[in-house]
Automatic annotation (TrEMBL):
Pfam families: ABC_tran, NIL
Keywords noted in UniProt: Amino-acid transport, ATP-binding, Cell membrane, Hydrolase, Membrane, Nucleotide-binding, Translocase, Transport
InterPro entries reported for this sequence: AAA+_ATPase, ABC_transporter-like_ATP-bd, ABC_transporter-like_CS, ACT-like_dom_sf, MetN_ABC, MetN_ABC_transporter-like, NIL_domain, P-loop_NTPase
Enzyme class, spelled out: hydrolase
Protein name from the UniProt record: Methionine import ATP-binding protein MetN
Endpoints of the signal sequence: none
Sample GO molecular function, one term: hydrolase activity
Residue ranges occupied by any ABC transporter domain in the UniProt entry: 2-241
EC number(s) given by UniProt: 3.6.3.-
Length: 341
């Protein structure tokens, strides 16, 4: 559906050239929810803007839904753009138009007749759950409702690809989750390909099938979300994964325990898929003469399955702890012995 081959984008500035995107190769399949994560300045916006022709690459080929976006021009580019829609962090709604009129806007531009327009708007209002708010103005809506209008408007012309530019960054956590659930719902119902950029790993964890991590204009790591959570390779990816699996309090608790109990071991166990379901702790207590102090545990769902993480303190004779650690490693559970940060 989307393929980028050796794509670079250089901006000429007064202070010299800035390479915002640096030789990127990327393939996104039809019907996939693909996340691109990176800190500010990594090049995410520039990359996503090349997917709808708002920026042209300096080098390389950007191909979306069978069209080479760097080559098509004029009416063909406008047509190609109708297949690719976008939603934004600050919604970009027309403030003097009602919900209904905002959603109808792209249909008017596309020359759709009044009766068909009304029918389509009604259908979209239902799809995004805005029944009863048709005649409200954007200023009378909550952030989540505004983004629902943005989504309905983006879907009006039946695009094949939906691009999401930090679409939930302005929303509170609960509203973020409801918008993410809506995106998963429309991805499934309409087989829509969704590409999103974000700086929040929670967003990736909750809805993406695959993820690419961007740093300094390059993709430094990519893969299935569950795989990246289980085995993050790059330091930056490890930091993003920690956003979801490890809270600051945990790090504090670990520091405290390492000081208080220099004898034992503080370990993090990571469970993936079916290994989440085994009674590992009771087995450990039964089999080994050790004490186990549970510090923090969490199971998160991703689009490809469950992912769990548990921090525990093992106390007892050194040899017995070593035997327990060896046993855990045999159980298809990732294990990391924590040391001071
Ligand atoms: N139009 C432009 N002219 C000059 N430099 C630009 C332009 N757009 C982006 N850049 C530069 O390119 C680099 C990547 O910016 P980009 O906005 O793509 O990153 P980002 O990851 O989306 O960050 P953010 O989340 O802050 O938007 C930055 O160094 C930025 O200053």
């Amino acid at each position: 559906m989307i393929s980028l081959k050796s794509v670079s984008k250089v901006f000429k500035t007064r202070n010299g050239p800035v390479k915002a995107v640096d030789d990127i190769d990327l393939t996104i399949n039809e019907g996939e929810i693909y996340g691109i994560i990176g800190y500010s300045g990594a090049g995410k916006s520039t990359l996503i803007r090349m997917l709808n022709g708002l920026e042209t690459p300096t080098d390389g080929v950007v191909d979306v839904a069978g069209k080479n976006l760097g080559k098509v021009k004029g009416s063909e580019l406008r047509k190609a753009r109708q297949e690719i829609s976008m939603i934004f962090q600050h919604f970009n709604l027309l403030w003097s138009r009602t919900v209904k009129e905002n959603i109808a806007f792209p249909l008017e531009i596309a020359g759709v007749g009044r009766a068909e327009r009304n029918r389509r708007v009604e259908e979209l209002i239902k799809l995004v759950g805005l029944e009863g708010r048709e005649d409200s103005y954007p200023s009378q809506l909550s952030g989540g409702q505004k983004q629902r209008v943005g989504i309905a408007r983006a879907l009006a012309n039946n695009p094949k690809v939906l691009l999401c530019d930090e679409a939930t960054s302005a929303l509170d956590p609960q509203t973020t989750d409801s918008i993410l659930e809506l995106l998963v719902d429309i991805n499934k119902r309409l087989s829509l390909t969704i590409v999103l950029i974000t700086h929040e790993m929670h967003v990736i964890r909750k809805i993406c099938h695959r993820v690419a991590v961007m740093e300094n204009g390059k993709i430094v790591e990519q893969g299935e979300v569950l795989h990246v959570f289980r085995k993050p390779e790059q330091p930056i990816t490890k930091r993003f994964v920690k956003q979801v699996t490890e809270t600051e309090e945990t790090q504090e608790t670990i520091e405290h325990l390492l000081t208080e109990f220099p004898r034992g071991k503080v370990i993090q166990m990571t469970f993936v898929g079916t290994s989440v379901e085994q009674p590992l702790i009771s087995n450990l207590i039964r089999k080994f003469d050790i004490n186990i102090n549970i510090l923090q545990g969490k199971i998160s769902q991703t689009q490809n399955g469950a992912y769990g993480s548990l921090f525990v303190h093992l106390d007892g004779e050194q040899a017995e702890i070593d035997r327990a650690v060896a046993y855990i490693k045999e159980q298809q559970v990732e294990l990391e012995v924590m040391t001071r940060a």
